[in-house]
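To whoever is covering the structure queue this week,

Two jobs came back overnight. Logging them here so there's a record in the thread.

Job A:
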Amino acid sequence: MQITDATVMMAFQIRKKDTLIAFLLWWFLGIFGGHRFYCNRAGSGAAMLSISLVSVPLCYVCIGFVGMFAIFIWWIVDAFCLPGWIEQHNQELMNQIEYTRSVHQQNLTLPMR
């Protein structure tokens, strides 16, 4: 089976990340780290989610505002990082697809013994 340019582009289109979706997740679920999970940063997304879930109930006793302030700063910084994360992911994806394609083509051109 030959891997064509159309196959490569379809594989890329299926697995790429979209900046608009990342920003929508950042806007609506950013306090819970939804955008970080989307960008394959599950560790820091889980940290953001945990801090938020602990801080919200603690706001009733005025302790949770510290955690919410930290999450707010983290949320703002992430707005500037999102485009770079998406571009990096998409570039790594394209490199992986191209590498797979080149390995596949090399296997097809090897002489049979």
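Job B:
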Amino acid sequence: MKIALLTSNQPRHLYFIKTISKYYKPSLVIIEKKKKSYFYESEKKFFGEKKSEINCPLIKVNQAKINNTKVLNILKKLKINLCLVFGTSLIHQKIFSIPSNGCLNIHTGLVQGFRGTDSCYWAIYKKKPEYIGVTIHQIASGVDNGAVLIQKKTKLDKNDVIEKIFFKTCKDGIELLASIIKKISKKNLKKITVNLGRNYRSKDMNKEVKLFIDKNINKIINEYLINKKNINQLQEKKEKYKWKL
């Protein structure tokens, strides 16, 4: 099976390339260039800054150009069977319909609660830390709304800051996908459809939300950890999840 990695250029994305490549050699890597985030230095410290050696065709595109003709043509030319996506702009149908086995995305949130950007942040702001986790799903038209392959909750600590929660969630998603990639390449695994949470966009985030999170995060997480068993049981009675392949 020929696999392509579609990702970005920040430390977490380079970790994605390095980790997936340990388990399965990609036939193509496409990197969408983006600006450094406000947490770049702490992200670099968490994931490391050593770049992975890429031993396959590499395409770099500017931000929001992930769906351009250059990408479309090389996916067709190399006859890519599956795309693994992490951290790019929204993938359009003309791209995700090319691979014979479609495209899988790592979303850093449980889609039953939060979709789009900053899912970890919104889960804290809405006082629903039980929705902090990762979803690996099929890409479809829309935002984080495709069939779900597997999910995992992020292990939270009462002293976590929001950036560390996000980093841990990214790492969990990358390593979860890497651990199942050989199974994915050998057979068509069962996916499920689920009820979807709200889709948040970058413009929804503001200083007031971030201040609330920074001020209240430890209290919110601690309250969750104290009542974790009951909260999780109620959550799973309310909605369908997929913790195993």
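Note for Job B: The chain has one domain: 3-238.

Please reply-all if you pick these up so we don't duplicate work.
Q.
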